[in-house]
Amino acid sequence: MRVDNHIILGKDERKETIEIKVDGKTIQAKKGEMIIAALMANGIRINRYTVKKKEPRGIFCGIGQCTDCVMVVNGKPNVRTCVTPVEDGMIIETQYGVERGNR
Amino acid sequence: MIEKEVVVIGGGPSGFSAAVEAAKRGAEVLVVDENLRAGGQLFKQIHKFFGSSTHQAGVRGIDIASELLEQARECGVEVWLNSVVVGLFKEKKVTIKKTLADNSEKLEIIQAKKIVIATGASENAVRFKGWTLPGVMGAGAAQTMINVNRVLPGKRILMIGSGNVGLIVSNQLLQAGAEVVGVIEAAPQIGGYGVHAAKIRRAGVPIYTSHTIQEARGKKNVEKAVICEVNDKWQPIRGTEKILEVDTITIAAGLKPLIELAMMHDCKCSFIPQLGGWVPLHDKNMESTNPGIYLVGDVAGVEEANTALEEGRLAGTAIAETLKYISLGNARKLKKEIWQRLNELRMGPFGEKRMLAKNNILTAYKI
Predict the structure, then answer these.
(1) Do the Cβ atoms of B5 and B301 come closer than 8 Å?
(2) How close does chain A come to B133, measured CA to CA in Å?
(3) pLDDT, tens digit, for every residue of B167-221?
(4) Which ranges of chain B does DSSP label H, i.e. alpha helix?
(5) Distances A98 to A36, A50, A80, B254, B348 between C-alpha atoms, Å
(6) Options 3.40.980.10, 3.10.560.10, 3.10.20.440, 1.10.530.10; which CATH number does A17-96 get?
(7) Which residue out of B33, B37, B66, B145 would a mutagenesis test of the A interface target, given it has the greatest number of A Cβ atoms within 10 Å?
């Protein structure tokens, strides 16, 4: 859920949206926002599954330190989605272990 | 190889205040930061700062950041964003993976005369059953999501920890439209300032002291939290479990200094729990045990943005002095004023522990 109106920060003036593809599904993102923000605004909380136990992981630190939120972005694995901005047409995939899943 | 008089690693409040202080006296300063935006964590601090008017009390963190960056521009501080320090060598050579305008990367080696390490701190985790589930995150992560990215991390939130971060972020989650189901605190009393606790209590948020979290439950993300009371030895009391319906659990259990670069450079460190754990030692100029390497802000002991700003000024002044941009007498006067302000910030029941711990650093430095 987006915070469109804020008591201190005011109205969110970022109007321009772009489209990204997450696991094959097209979603709207605000231009220039971090990937994790677009995902979270669209209710997506799982970024990856761990190598051995295949457990789900989501955002933990939010500032690029912990690498819990990494995903496969435009074919490249281990991209930190909390510090990487969206680009129009970006292809984002849930990461399984260290690679994309076999769908 | 590029030569710079001063290289500052980390573009948060302490790094930039050191940069501004040195640059406005005439030094040539480069600030390197791995993020896309300068300002460190100030931009998520939308609350008004505490302290007296000399410490910008009543000014919001976001406004302090904007002003500081403007000052840096005015006095000609060079800033490399999206650039990571990957090496630090004995001769004060700094290796930086720099991102260029076209997004390509280039390795640059810089010969510096002085280096300021202002790398900040990272949030501590709390481990409990289910703590790795999506929906369990640092309080700082939640704060970044609502105040910078403007997206709510969840609808019903449990905050772990009642220090100032836990209390302030709880209030900011309410401001962003989330429901804070409760704040839990293992100690028998609230950790942070009464005024912050009062704010969220007025909004109806219960603060459970002498409570801990036992478990986060959920299949693929957080659906419930199990909390329980603890005894005076902080052990869970059986039969006191409560189940809270939450989708998010945020952890505010303190921070620890990011000392890797300082350690890599053989700066002597000491374990000081009051300042977040292992911290590199420094003298009254914020200089480490390695001459010419300075430490400012949370990396020199976790405190708050105001002390970070003052420590930055201290290092910046000391650097301007040793590079002979200001006279010894002038530097002595400026540093004395800064120390007075730092001492004021470290007074009172909350500041006193930090003051003692900081004095321990200064004493250990001399040994």
Answers:
(1) no
(2) 6
(3) 999 999 999 999 999 999 999 999 999 999 999 999 999 999 999 999 999 999 9
(4) 13-23, 61-74, 139-147, 164-175, 194-202, 260-264, 305-322, 328-345, 348-366
(5) 18, 8, 13, 31, 50
(6) 3.10.20.440
(7) B145
Pick from B256, B342, B360, B347: which is nearest to B298 by CA? B256
The residue behind tokens 């005439």 is B26
Q: Which fold has domain B125-251?
A: FAD/NAD(P)-binding domain (3.50.50)
**pLDDT band for position B279 (cuts 50, 70, 90):** very high
Q: What is the CATH class of B2-122+255-366? A: alpha beta
User: CA B290, CA B282: separation in Å to the nearest integer?
Assistant: 9
- Whether residues A46 and B134 touch (CB distance < 8 A) is answered with yes
List all residues 6 or more positions away from B366 whose beta carbon is below 8 Å from its beta carbon.
B283
Q: What is the pLDDT of residues B126-136, one digit of tens each?
A: 999 999 999 99
Both tokens assigned to B69: 């960056």
- Residue ranges of chain B whose CB lies within 8 Å of a chain A CB: 34-36, 41, 46, 60, 122-123, 125, 132-138, 140-142, 144-147, 149-153, 155, 175-177, 220-221
Closest CB to B138: pick one of A6, A33, A62: A62
Between CA B216 and CA B231 the distance in angstroms is 21
Tallying the residues shown for chain A, one arrives at 103
Q: What is the ipTM of this complex?
A: 0.96
The pair of three-digit structure tokens given for residue B342, joined into one six-digit string: 């730092």
Q: Model's pTM, two decimal places?
A: 0.94
What count of Cα atoms within 13 Å lies in the side-chain half-sphere of residue B98? 16
Interface test with B, best of A4, A7, A8, A48 (most B CBs within 10 A): A8
Contact A79, A39 (CB under 8 A): no
Q: Are B294 and B115 in contact (CB under 8 A)?
A: yes
